[in-house]
Design goal:
Length: 329
């Protein structure tokens, strides 16, 4: 397909095929021979398209949570949107970010090791300017962050990225927390240079300032839950939740017809083993329960009600007075 045929060449080719001078099978064989794709082993594709779509959905949820958080913190128009999700070598990611930037190292068990949430300096300074009472303007050149600036931004990002685990709630129970902060990517050797990572680029708009936040997830980090990043798993989970919801009523009806043993406890006492051996017919035991005190009504091994002993017709009965409080149980 490197060359475009003219109309005369197309007509000549059709005539040759119809006359039998050229066999169609020969074209098919040539086409099969040409079906060769170049593969760069430095850019190994380790995530399927289905898994990439799942990661996109997760981080779209994360972007919505960031929009809510930063809109409240900065008190201005803030918008986070997922721009792209791609897989590339870790070394390529490190060389693509600025030499002076906010690199937040996040730990999120049960995910292995750490991953990166990198915030471009223009976004960081716009947030910082807004927090300190300014309009949230962009600074053209960033040479370094001062200790006070680092302290303010670190505390802000620590609160913001603590909700990252909530974006994974449909896949797994993930608890995220910030482990460290770095500003120079050249000092950060998270995984080997050729390790495949997923790079999620999130576009950020703060007033009139725009930039990106990059989430870098190494393959080894999300490998423990990789099997859950598929539409098949999502469908199974949805069916399981629906089945659970639909089965509540039959279970409830079945429980309503279950029989439970209810016992009224007249009282308790403690005697020695020697006294127990010498007990005879007619002996009396003094209980720790006064006659006027309500009796404990047991359901199984739990004290559930307080009641009063009496008779109903020709049978002994217990009248329920009130339910026992949870702390008394």
């Amino acid at each position: 397909m490197g060359e475009v045929l003219s109309q005369q060449e197309i007509d000549a080719l059709l005539s040759a095929l119809s006359s039998g001078d050229v066999e169609a099978d020969s074209f098919l064989a040539q086409e099969e021979e040409r079906k060769v794709r170049q593969y760069d082993f430095k850019r190994a594709v380790r995530f399927s398209k289905d898994q990439i779509r799942s990661l996109t959905r997760i981080h779209e949820h994360f972007a919505r949570m960031l929009t809510t958080f930063f809109s409240a913190q900065l008190r201005t128009y803030v918008q986070f949107t997922v721009n792209s999700v791609e897989q590339l070598p870790y070394d390529e990611f490190i060389h693509s970010i600025p030499s002076m930037t906010m690199i937040n190292l996040i730990e999120a068990p049960p995910l292995n090791g750490r991953f990166i949430i990198e915030v471009n300096p223009n976004i960081s300074y716009a947030m910082l300017d807004r927090l300190l009472g300014g309009p949230g303007v962009e600074i053209e050149k960033v040479d370094s962050f001062t200790e006070i600036e680092m302290r303010i931004l670190t505390q802000l990002y620590k609160r913001a990225f603590a909700s990252y685990g909530d974006a994974w709630e449909s896949i797994a129970e993930v608890k995220s927390q910030m482990a460290a902060v770095e500003v120079n990517p050249q000092f950060l050797q998270l995984v080997s240079p050729n390790e495949t990572v997923v790079l999620i680029s999130i576009g950020v708009t703060i007033g009139e300032v725009s930039g990106t936040i990059n989430v870098c997830l190494p393959f080894v980090t999300i490998e423990p839950i990789l099997s859950k990043l598929s539409s098949h798993y999502w469908m199974q989970e949805a069916n399981r939740r629906n089945a659970t919801g639909n089965s509540k009523e039959p279970l409830k009806a079945q429980l309503m017809n279950s029989s439970v043993e209810v016992v009224s406890l007249l009282g308790e006492t403690t005697i020695t083993f020697g006294d127990l051996l010498h007990l005879e017919i007619g002996d009396c035991l003094t209980l720790d329960q006064l006659v006027k005190e309500p009796l404990s009504v047991m359901v199984g091994e739990n004290k559930v009600f307080k009641g009063q002993a009496g008779v109903s017709g020709k049978r002994m009965a217990v009248q329920v007075l009130h339910r026992v409080k949870e702390e008394e149980q």
